[in-house]
Write a structure and sequence with these properties.
heterodimer, A: alpha/beta, Rossmann fold, six-stranded mixed sheet, four-stranded antiparallel sheet, 9 helices, 34% helix, globular, B: mainly alpha, ABC transporter involved in vitamin B12 uptake, BtuC, two-stranded antiparallel ribbon, two-stranded antiparallel sheet, 14 helices, 4 strands, 71% helix
Chain lengths: 273, 354
């Protein structure tokens, strides 16, 4: 990557997204435990870790599906507590879900605006603004490289790549400040990965803070400025691009010696877990 | 390896152009009500020729009356099916709420309108219980509403025999405000030799309102998403639980309306232990193109299905056939509708797992 690192984190500036000692628990089990992170606009944070390490919990928290217990979640310096995905979206945080969150039997434009439909008219007659919704959908899809799409066709008729584009275009449209991308666990084709990486870069260049949950250290190193390694709900490593090269990162994520040693140290630090 | 990034683009080759005829077929098939329209045309053709007097104003009045009462319920059930749930208790809600009205009028001495208001609240409470149980437990709505069905049916029979000593409560037409209730729920207009009832108007209003809701409001979008892709709906912040409960309130209201129309027409209530009407609503909604798996369907289709049902029933009667044949016919119709819906589903394309 030849792009210089953005210097948005200059002295005094508040980070766009900040997690302070944040804990999410299901009953007595902590899915995330004292996780901290600072992320500026124009930066990409890659979240890496094994299955069950808390990656999905982090995504669910940022997108408003889950609420945190202790700790603080701050967006542009203001503490927030989302009670629904709608509230997260209203704060400019949008998510690309691993299942893409697409209703196959609904049309493309209905999918695009699902949960945040534009309306016109006053209450008893308040109705969907179909024309606007369709235009915006077509424009947003063209922005991610899918041109000439019929917004009225069912989402089930889209090719896999187009469905991915739809999910990304939607998140780019609604995510004004923070974009959360959770990659599917199933293998993706090269072009699908390309779409995802392209969207990460696009969002970063537009000044968004990007949280990129991925399974591939190589791809992560390609686009990431920071790397948050999770293990058993704890931060196993919070590295910057200068700290590691792609090979180190791979070894760390692949459960190599470093990670095992790290985990062992952590266990010793908190016995009884 | 780094230099390659900016060239990543969505692979969007032009889709292979389909022949026009095939596209037309696709867009016709994609309409949920296609099967009902075809069925209705066939039934009108067959019975119009074979059943004397079906297409006169007298015959039409009968057909439309049957279709209206069935249609009101089918429209509500269709909404619920699109939302991915089913309500087996709608028929018994009709009986139970009208029984509540009848008891309040005949035993407590309330005027008809307050009694109707109370019974509407009772019906809504049943709907709320159904909806909240389904949402809170995640149990199949079929099971939850079977339980409600049994409770209400037993309750209705017990209440009727306690209040009136039999399964029949009658003689309500002396209640205060009865004539205005009659005007709202059982007004008729004579056209030719057919008496057209106001239930027809209620049915049309229900169909138009729900069609608009389904296709042109945020609520409708939420219904489609809740039934078709619950997980996606939750992830995007669609109020899945609220939508489900509202849909159950909708079927309860429809049940109350059907019960009230029957009550005002008869001037009383007859409680009979039956589990039949719910199945008819379901059959009619499926004929109208609703998928049992949720997320797809239309209330206009359900109304057309109700019309088809009524035409076939009245047609078989007028042609001198046995009504048992009607049941067999209905079963075959359901089968055809199910197969047609499966075809539609395949045409629309199943979702590849990727």
């Amino acid at each position: 990557m030849t792009t210089p690192l953005p210097t948005a984190g200059a002295a005094g500036a508040t980070p766009l997204l900040e997690l302070r000692d944040l804990t999410v628990s299901f009953g007595s089990v902590a899915a995330l435990s004292r996780v901290s992170l600072q992320l500026d606009g124009g930066q990409v944070c890659c979240v890496l870790g094994e299955n069950g390490s808390g990656k999905s919990t982090l995504v669910a928290l940022l997108s408003g599906l889950l609420r945190h217990g202790e700790g603080e979640l701050l967006v542009a310096g203001r503490p927030v507590r989302f009670r629904s995905p709608g509230q997260a979206r209203a704060q400019g945080i949008a998510t690309v879900w691993p299942d893409l969150a697409i209703a196959p039997l609904m049309s493309v434009w209905r999918n695009f605006f699902l949960g945040a439909e534009p309306t016109r008219g006053v209450w008893p007659l308040r109705r969907l603004d179909v024309a606007t919704a369709q235009q915006v959908t077509v424009r947003a899809m063209a922005r991610v490289g899918v041109a000439g799409l019929d917004p009225d066709q069912a989402a089930s008729g889209l090719q896999a790549g187009e469905r991915q584009s739809l999910a990304i275009a939607r998140a780019l449209h609604f995510g004004a400040r923070v974009l959360v991308i959770d990659e599917p666990t199933t293998p993706m084709t090269l072009s699908q990965r390309g779409l995802v990486l392209q969207s990460v870069v696009t969002a970063r260049d537009e000044g968004l803070a990007v949280v990129f949950v991925t399974h591939s250290p190589q791809y992560a190193h390609l686009v990431g400025d920071r790397f948050l390694l999770l293990a058993r709900g704890r931060v196993a490593g919070n590295l910057t691009r200068d700290d590691v090269d792609a090979d180190d990162l791979t070894r760390l994520v692949a459960g190599g010696d470093e990670l095992s040693r790290l985990t062992a140290t952590l266990r010793r630090a908190a016995p009884g877990r | 390896m780094n230099a390659g990034l900016p060239t990543f683009r969505a692979p969007s080759p032009a889709p292979p152009a389909r022949p026009t005829g095939r596209r037309l077929l696709d867009s016709l098939l994609a309409r949920p009500s296609a099967a009902a329209v075809v069925g209705l045309l066939v039934a009108l053709l067959v019975f119009g020729l074979r059943a004397p007097g079906l297409l006169t104003s007298g015959g039409l009045a009968t057909v439309l009356d049957v279709a209206a009462l069935l249609g009101i319920g089918a429209v509500a059930i269709a909404m619920l099916l699109v939302g991915g749930q089913f309500d087996l208790s709608i028929g018994v809600v009709a009986v139970f709420s009208s029984l509540v009205t009848a008891v309040l009028v005949s035993q407590v001495g309330l005027p008809i309108w307050p009694a109707l208001a109370v019974s509407l609240l009772v019906a809504l409470a049943v709907g709320a219980v159904n909806g909240l149980l389904v949402v809170a437990t995640g149990l199949p709505s079929f099971l939850v509403t079977v339980a409600t069905f049994l409770v209400l049916e037993g309750g209705a029979l017990a209440l009727a025999s306690a209040a009136a000593g039999s399964s029949r409560v009658s003689g309500l037409d002396g209640a205060a405000g009865w004539s205005s209730a009659e005007w709202v729920f059982d007004a008729t207009v004579q056209i030719g030799d057919g008496r057209f009832r106001i239930s027809l108007l209620w049915w049309v209003v229900a169909t138009v309102l729900t069609t608009w809701q389904l296709w042109r409001t945020r609520f409708g979008n939420a219904v489609f998403a809740t039934g078709g892709a619950g997980q996606a709906a939750r992830e995007l912040g669609v109020p899945v639980a609220r939508t489900t409960v509202l849909l159950f309130l909708g079927t309860a209201t429809a049940g109350w309306l059907i019960g009230t129309i029957g009550l005002v027409r008869l001037g009383g209530v007859q409680v009979a232990p039956t589990l039949g009407t719910e199945i008819e609503f379901l059959v009619v909604a499926v004929i109208g193109g609703c998928l049992l798996t949720g997320g797809y369907g239309s209330t206009l289709g359900a109304s057309l299905g109700a019309l088809l049902y009524a035409v076939a029933r009245e047609g078989i009667t007028r042609a001198g056939g046995d009504l048992y044949w009607f049941q067999a016919f209905l079963g075959m119709l359901l089968l055809v509708a199910l197969l047609a819906n499966g075809l539609v589903r395949r045409r629309l394309g199943t979702v590849p797992r990727s």
